[in-house]
Amino acid sequence: MNLFCIGLSHHTVNVATREQFAGNATAEWIVSKAGCTEALLLTTCNRVEVYAVSDKRISTDEIAQCLMGKTNRNAHNYAPPFYRYEDNKCVQHLFRVASGLDSMVVGESEIFGQAKKAYESARTSGAVGPYLHRLFQRAFRVAKQVRTHTEIARGAVSVGSVAVELAQRIFGNLSECKVLVLGAGETSDRTARALVSRGVTDLRVSNRSLDRAHELAQTVGGRVVPFDDWATQCREIDILLTSTASEMPLLTPDMLAPMLCERVDRPLFIIDIAVPRDVDPRVNEMEGVYLYDIDSIRSVAEQSLTLRRQQVAAAEAIIADHVTEFVDSISRGLSRISQTTEHSSLSENPLRASDLQGS
Amino acid sequence: MDRYLLIASTVCFLAAVVHTIIELRTGVFRPMRFNFFAIGLGFIFQTAFLSIRGHELGRCPITNLFEVFVFIAWSVALIYLLVGPAYRLSLMGAFTAPLVLLLQGFALVAPIDIRHPVKVPANSWLEFHASISLVAYGAFALACIAGVMYLLQERQLKTHHLHSIFYHLPPLTNLFAAITRLLWWGFALYTVGIVSGFFTGHPLPRIQVVAAIALWLLYAAILQARHLKWLAPKRVAALCIIGFSAALALLWGITFTAEMLPPP
Known about the structure:
The complex is a heterodimer. Chain A is of the alpha/beta class. Helices cover 47% and strands 14% of the residues of chain A. Chain A has 13 helices and 10 strands. A 6-stranded parallel β-sheet of chain A has the order 7-6-5-8-9-10. In chain A, helix 9 (210-220) links the parallel strand 6 (202-206) and strand 7. In chain A, helix 4 crosses helix 12. The longest helix of chain A is centred in the last third of the chain and has 32 residues, at 312-343. Chain B has one domain. Chain B is mostly helical. Chain B has helices at 2-26, 33-57, 65-86, 92-109, 124-159, 172-197, 206-227, 233-260. Chain B is globular, with a radius of gyration of 19 Å. Chains A and B meet through helix 7 and helix 11 of A and helix 5 and helix 6 of B.
């Protein structure tokens, strides 16, 4: 029994090369063309990988050609550096992938869902048998354990998610928060959507161009505030998200001070993603005001990534334990089957799911 | 025997502190069950200690500074176990355990477990007055801990330097709500404690009464300022720390003067 993984990822090739091998084949196709016992195809924007089990050795070139699917293109024309992991290394690689350790953004959780989807698809088509079933079920378990027992998925790493994370650290439940979006740029749009997805219902949009304000308000389910009135909104709002093209600061301590007197017990969170900045940095020195400009948001994202990277060793240790345990349990399962088949003189019996279930 | 129970309890709180330190050092802070159970077990040992000591004395075991410290530590643990999970302040355990450890550690190490001759015979009003006041101290201690957590979280948000613990601290608004509730609980219990002091049937030393009323006024002022929105949450949090420090100083003074007073 030979377990292997052959693939390409963002670590080894660029997107132009990856896309040549993505979307042409299915797990079922690989089983039939390459002669594998079982196969699973994991295709994401960052990787194209085949996990397979076979009785005979199947070359990397054969799998590469299978990935070309029914197209007439020759895999050799691209000659990308496919990586190949076998047995223990393959198990370890899958556990790392499912846990987000091999991802572009370390610890991201999207890969977990993508791996689950790939598994479901291969299972439905009948390309997954007992071996890959056990392997992937264990991989999902490992990924959950890594997330639970380490800080690998902690912290936000994009502007929108950092803004949401910080807002939740200040206000807890965002459903009661009033948000003013000042300036209707692309990043504001994304950040406003992120806030709405976390429960914000009272969202106001103010922009010099009223049409653009209406457009954004409509897409995020907010209401428009005339641009001349935005400053007075600071009396009521909890979160100000600003990204105008103004050359001068729009909000200064002198403007804000009288309004803060009316809201002593309510914090004000300001996300200033404009360059040049819309809010005077001295505003952050005012009591109850938390000002984050684009640099400080990037710095928070970088801190989150550093925190995640520090957790890689702890995650690797969990994975190493599971790899050893999984390989041992599979070996025990196989030797039990071998004893059973010797006893019943059925040496040609394939591996059965029920035999592996107890391992 | 009762001292061993107290040592066992202290070890439980020490375990919670060590667990927190190890987790903070490795950067994997999970303020989940361990701290809660360690504090729970420590609380059981504390209760057993106080119960045995109370039976020996034939009264509420708050007859010297040693017992008073243990009683406060017990009150802090009790209120943490009641409010910590209810307000989803699991991290509070990480802050509660060091305070209890400090109180009990000091009580065990310092030569303050001295049996004084009973100056005032036990009566239910006196015991109620003393014990309810000490439970109020437990609530003020927790408010102080929540205040420390608030200031820590606030500082991280202001300076934009977020440590691993940042992700486990409750949101600022939740912490402020918890501070307010604990202050109200402490204030209500302390008020009952002070009022009951006038029913003990014994004249209370004037200095104690004045100091106790001053502390009551301090907490009343904090709550009033909070209610009227005169103070920013950060200042309320800082005042909780100052208030509890004053409360401890007052307690020390009360116990000290009680021990110095001649028997009636």
